[in-house]
Amino acid sequence: MIKSLRLRLFALVAAITLLVWAGAAIWTGMSARAEVERVLDRRLVEAARMVAALDVATRKTGDAPAPIHYSRDLSCQIWSLDGGLIGRSAGSPDAPLAGGKPGFTERVVGERRWRVFTHVDPDQGIRVMIGDNLAIRERLVRDLLLGLVLPAVAGLIALGVLLWLAVSRGLRPLGRITEAIATRSPESLAPLELEPVPSELSPLVRAMDTLLLELDTARQAERAFVANAAHELQTPLAGLKTQAEVARRASDPSMREHALERIIVSVDRTSCLVRQLLDLAAQERHESRAGTWVSVDEVIATIEQDYRLIAQRSGRQIVTACSRRCPEVALDEYALRLAIGNLVENALLHGAGNVRIECALDTDFELRVIDFGVGIPKEDQSRVRRRFERGRGVGTTGTGLGLPIVQMAIAAAGGILEFRTCQNGFAAVLRFPSPAFRVTAPRGTFSEMAPALSRRSRRRGR
C-alpha cells in the first residue's frame, strides 16, 4: 500500500489519465483503420471505373490499347466476359485477381493477399479488376497509427511530469502545516493560525486548533487541580503536624488527649480527601461506563449498610422510600454507588435530621437524597459543582470534591444532578433520561435485601 499521499494522488491521477488515453487510443486506432479502409476502397472503385472508361475510348477509335502502368502495390486486369485476358498492369499476376463477381473480394494470388474490386461493363463486354496489396495496406495503417502513438507517448511523459509537479505544488499547504507543527514548542498550545488555507484543509486546521484549545484548557484545569489538591492536603497535614507537636510536648493529659483527638480528625479529613481524589481520578480514566445494567435497589441497600454506622454516631437514620419497581440504570455499579454515596455522605455531614432516599419513575427516573437542613443556597448551586468549591457555612469540613465526583460518575448514562427545595428539607436529585433505565421484575424491599447484602459483604471480607 502506498503510504505517500503525493505518490497516491499521482498514481490515481496517472491511472485515470492512462485509462482515458487508452480508451481514446483504441477508439482512434479503430476509427483511423476504418477510415483508411474506406479511402483505399474508394480508390479501388474510382480506379476500376477510370480504367473501364479508358478501355471504351480506345476500342471506339480502333487504336491498340494503351499500356497501363501501375505500381506493384496496385494491380489491374481487364478481362473479357468470355474469360479472355485483354490487358493487365506491369507486375500483375497472370491468374485472375478475383472470381469475376462484381464488388469487393479478398483473395490470395501468387503468395500475396489482395483486396480486389471488380467492375463489370456489359455494354463493352469487359470485366475490370483492381487489386490492392493488403500487406502494403496494413503497413500504411501501421505507419499511420505509429505516427499517432509516438506523439501520444511523448505527451503522456510530459503530462506525467506536469502532474507530479502539480500534485507537489497542490500539497504544499500540507508541508506548511507540518512545518508549523514541527517547529512548535511542546509548551505552546496556541492555535496554528495558518492563513490562507485551502478550503479542503480548513476542517483539518480548525479541528487541530480546537484540539489545541481543548488541550490547553485541560492542562490549565490539571494545573489548577494539582494546585488545589496540594493546598487542600497542606492544611490538614500542617494541622496534623502541629497537633502531633502539641501531643508530644504536652504534660497535661487532657491537653494531650485533645491533641490526639485533633490528630484523628485531621487524619480522617486527609483520608477522605485522598479517597475522593482517587475516586475522581478513577472516573476521569473511565469516563464511559454506560452499557452494563445495575440494579438501583441493590446499590441503595448497599449504601444504607455502608453509612448506617456514620448516621448512628450522629443520632440519625437513613430512610429508604422506594417502590418495588425501582429500575435498573445503564451505568457501572461502582459509578452509581459512588454517586449515591457522596450525596448521602454530604447529607450526613452538612445536613440535619434523617436522610431520606426516594425514587420516582415517570418519563425520567429520579433518585432523590433528602435531608432537613438549610441546603445549598441558589447563588452557590452552580459554584459547588466545581472542584474544591464549597458552599457557604461549610467551613473546612468538606473537600469540595463530592459533587463534581457525582456529576462525573453519572455523566456516562446521561444523568443530571439537580438541587431542589422540598417540604422542610433540601433534595439532591439524580435524574436519568428514559434510554438510560429500564424497569424489571421486583426484587424485594430494602429491608428484605439488607441482611443478604450484609452476609455477602462479610463473605467478600474473609
From TrEMBL:
<dbReference type="GO" id="GO:0000155">
    <property type="term" value="F:phosphorelay sensor kinase activity"/>
</dbReference>
<keyword id="KW-0808">Transferase</keyword>
<dbReference type="GO" id="GO:0005524">
    <property type="term" value="F:ATP binding"/>
</dbReference>
<dbReference type="Pfam" id="PF02518">
    <property type="entry name" value="HATPase_c"/>
</dbReference>
<dbReference type="InterPro" id="IPR005467">
    <property type="entry name" value="His_kinase_dom"/>
</dbReference>
<dbReference type="InterPro" id="IPR004358">
    <property type="entry name" value="Sig_transdc_His_kin-like_C"/>
</dbReference>
<keyword id="KW-0418">Kinase</keyword>
<keyword id="KW-0597">Phosphoprotein</keyword>
<feature type="domain" description="Histidine kinase">
    <location>
        <begin position="228"/>
        <end position="436"/>
    </location>
</feature>
<keyword id="KW-1133">Transmembrane helix</keyword>
<dbReference type="InterPro" id="IPR003594">
    <property type="entry name" value="HATPase_dom"/>
</dbReference>
<keyword id="KW-0902">Two-component regulatory system</keyword>
<dbReference type="InterPro" id="IPR050428">
    <property type="entry name" value="TCS_sensor_his_kinase"/>
</dbReference>
<keyword id="KW-0547">Nucleotide-binding</keyword>
<dbReference type="InterPro" id="IPR003661">
    <property type="entry name" value="HisK_dim/P_dom"/>
</dbReference>
<dbReference type="GO" id="GO:0005886">
    <property type="term" value="C:plasma membrane"/>
</dbReference>
<feature type="transmembrane region" description="Helical">
    <location>
        <begin position="144"/>
        <end position="167"/>
    </location>
</feature>
<keyword id="KW-0472">Membrane</keyword>
<dbReference type="InterPro" id="IPR013727">
    <property type="entry name" value="2CSK_N"/>
</dbReference>
<dbReference type="InterPro" id="IPR036890">
    <property type="entry name" value="HATPase_C_sf"/>
</dbReference>
<dbReference type="Pfam" id="PF08521">
    <property type="entry name" value="2CSK_N"/>
</dbReference>
<keyword id="KW-0067">ATP-binding</keyword>
<protein>
    <recommendedName>
        <fullName>histidine kinase</fullName>
        <ecNumber>2.7.13.3</ecNumber>
    </recommendedName>
</protein>
<keyword id="KW-0812">Transmembrane</keyword>
<dbReference type="Pfam" id="PF00512">
    <property type="entry name" value="HisKA"/>
</dbReference>
<dbReference type="InterPro" id="IPR036097">
    <property type="entry name" value="HisK_dim/P_sf"/>
</dbReference>
